[in-house]
Amino acid sequence: MKDSVAIILAAGEGKRMKSATAKILHPLAGKPLLFYPLNAARKVKSQKIIVVVGYQGEKVKRTFSDEDIIFVTQWKQLGTGHAAASARDALTGFKGDVLILCGDIPLIKDSTLATLIALHQEAKNLVTVLTTTMKNPTGYGRIVRDHKGLVQKIIEDKDATSQEKEISEINSGIYCFDAEFLFEALESLSRQNAQNEYYLTDTIAIARDRGKSVGAVCAADETEVMGINNRIELAQASDVMRMQILEKLMLEGVSVINPKDTYIDFGVTIGKDTLICPNTFLMGNTDIGENCLIEPGCQIKDSKIGNQVTVRLASVIHESIIRDRATIGPFAHIRPGSDVGEGVRIGNFVEVKKTTIGKGSKASHLTYLGDTTVGSEVNVGAGTITCNYDGVSKHQTIIEDGVFIGSNTELVAPVKIGKEALIGAGSTITKNVPPGNLAISRAKQVNLPKKPFLGKKEEKEP
Ligand code: UD1
Ligand code: CA
Prior knowledge:
- The strands form six sheets. This protein has a 16-stranded parallel beta sheet that branches.
- The longest helix is centred in the middle third of the chain and has 21 residues, at 231-251.
- It is elongated.
- It is of the alpha/beta class.
- The chain has nine helices and 39 strands.
- A hairpin with a 2-residue loop joins strand 2 (27-28) and strand 3 (31-32).
- It folds into two domains: 4-225, Spore Coat Polysaccharide Biosynthesis Protein SpsA, Chain A; 245-439, 3 Solenoid (UDP N-Acetylglucosamine Acyltransferase, domain 1).
- Uridine-diphosphate-N-acetylglucosamine binds next to strand 1, helix 3 and strand 10.
């Protein structure tokens, strides 16, 4: 097998997106578009991956900074041929095959790329193009074949005659080239066309004119080579990707009540026998265990959820850990930096931020726990508030194991409640409470006869 490298063309602005953000950075199932062709190139074991950047190039490099990519810059976007030529210096002396991918074709499968490369190498072609037939080929370059059915040239939509526009076989924008031929052919491109650009597609006719072999692989599924040029296509591709993600999960044993209304990002993992209810968003770097129930309308992002966890209706969990058998919600908000222990119960209208909660503790109603460490088997009564912010800085609250906090309590941080202490309902706690103590800080109740007060109230001015 010949060596192969990949060039991903990603310098264009993507004007049709009408966006301040470069097209290839727009998210699809939680990852920027460019992530997907990169992923596919890695899977077919491209020895080098060169990404041609231009528009917002620095931002693109920053976004993919942790990856094994060689970036080259196309300073002026003069067309796909010019973009491919920008990779020349990065491949000096390279004699193998070059796989060309586009940053805006995210649904491409590595199995299709593997077929393309294998066929290209078997047939010893100079270039092999990935094509497909489309019901509506408008906008795409068309594959013109001769009377023998061999690929003759690619004609761009904007340059095509009305007869050529009838052709339903299109250029996917993905090719496998002999490296030496590619860089040599790119030298002879001209800009005499409707877009005044150097077209990579013109290299096909160049190979043919030299009597050299040009091949084509026709992808069976047109959605796989769909190029994203505007936001309508982005939404369509999102739909396809979403169904692929959901189908894979369902085949692995996850139940999804209504796949059409369930949004799971690429890379989210879910254990078997977990049930996902509709209108749920599972986002970013999220892992969910087995036997969980995720009720409708939840949003879970960059979080780790254990086994047998129940996340009830309309709860939000961000950048947190929820351990086995915990119950969250309904209407709970777990904010970044929280670690909710085994079997913990977080009930309705409870907000938790940068807080660790030990095994078996409960905060069942109307509570705010911020910058707090809660031990195990603690009961946090309804309406408890940790007053963590003094207007300038945030302070810590520590609630040790077995504490019972009565309802409607304020814990003014920094403050520590010792092991198994009891806080009387309605207290405002400003001082540490020693272990095992009862703390109560509320005005003494007075009971007075009702009548004289009522009488006064009824007095009228003469
Ligand atoms: C291109 C093909 C067309 C094919 C279609 C498939 C050409 C001339 N046309 O058209 O035959 O059917 O893709 O989706 O190749 N890019 C650069 N620098 C540039 C121009 C483009 O890096 O100067 C990059 C873009 O960022 C994009 C890719 O190349 O990722 C394709 O460019 P685009 O302008 O979208 O080409 P299409 O008009 O879609
Ligand atoms: Ca395109």
